[in-house]
């Protein structure tokens, strides 16, 4: 009886020592030592005592899943905040650079020509301002390309991380399959919990524990780990963008509910193409309207702008993107067709071009001026940044709360472990004293018998 009790208390102290050592280990859940009373015949004094009954794992699967959901939402919000902040840099709101001041400068230059249309310096200023507009569009598209490339690099890196974590989970499952007792190993359990939480920042994770102790893992609606086999995700070229597919070639993106992968896929497949399309529409509408106005006039030599000897002010390739390809044709100051054919040397066409700044019918399907349309685009990006930053702050708070709740349920309390250790130590000392007393009594009996 005493021997069993000593062994039980020693095992319990070992559990306490392991808990204390892993108090700061990520993913570790407190283990609680169990004691089992042995049957005892009070008449015959047979049996009795206590035996070590193993441990109880305090891991709470609901708390774990709640943390994973919060981490996934935080990963999506954080990714969006980073991406949209980079996108916002393409559209400066200081009024000192970018498309907006370039457009204003262009229309101001033509407005100045309405009073002195034949001033060569003002004509050159108009050509220079046209060049600045084209460069502003070109630069914006180049910056958007850089943002897109950064998003694609993020996507590639994150898919690699997801596949690496999936391999880790499959490896843990393999250890459990080879040794049934490994399913209750607190170390492997901690590694599994930590791996699932890391995976959650990339996508919404579903972890289903099997009868043999292994865990099957899905992201979105896609199986990522089955037993000791990982089913890696893959990026394949699509229509102008990379497509995320599972190991069977199925599109994964539609099944993702949260996580940074969802955010970066939305960035590459929707936000960036939509932003570029808006810039192209603005550039094409602007260039087409200016060229159309100039085609109705004559230059200083009397040649109509539409004459083969003359050229439009702007050229672009709509198929390759107007914003990326818009440029100024090599015109001289005398080739600007600022006068009407009925009044050579006049300012009629200069007035028409200047008035385009207030026109609300230049962009198909819109009732905004060019500047208002661009302002709406800038405001939309700014709103996305603001929403993402607010979401990031909210999800960080929710994640902290979920982690705190999990810690209160299954985390190691050093104060509690110290009390347990003291209790087990006293029990161990008491049984040791009992053994000592029995030993002394037995020795005295033997001595009496010998005498």
Order of strands across the widest beta sheet?
A: 5-6-7-8
Number of helices: 10
β-sheet strand percentage: 5-15%
Helix coverage percent of residues?
A: 55-70%
Low-confidence stretches: none
Oligomer: single chain
Main sheet makeup: 4 strands, antiparallel
Give a concise summary.
The chain is α+β, with helices and mostly antiparallel strands. The protein contains 10 helices and 14 strands.
Structure description:
There is one protein chain. Helices cover 58% and strands 12% of the residues. It is an alpha+beta fold and 451 residues long. Helix 2 (61-88) packs parallel to helix 5, helix 3 runs antiparallel to helix 9 and helix 4 runs antiparallel to helix 6 (260-294). The radius of gyration is 38 Å and the shape is rod-shaped. The mean pLDDT is 90.
Characteristics of this structure?
451 residues; alpha+beta; 4-stranded antiparallel sheet; two-stranded antiparallel sheet; 14 strands; 58% helix; rod-shaped
List the helices and strands and how they pair.
Elements: H1 2-21, E1 31-37, E2 40-41, E3 46-47, E4 50-57, H2 61-88, H3 99-113, H4 120-178, H5 186-200, E5 205-209, E6 215-219, E7 222-226, E8 229-230, E9 234-237, E10 242-245, H6 260-294, E11 297-298, E12 314-315, H7 322-325, E13 327-328, E14 339-340, H8 348-355, H9 370-410, H10 414-450
Antiparallel strand pairs: 1-4, 2-3, 5-6, 6-7, 7-8, 9-10, 11-14, 12-13
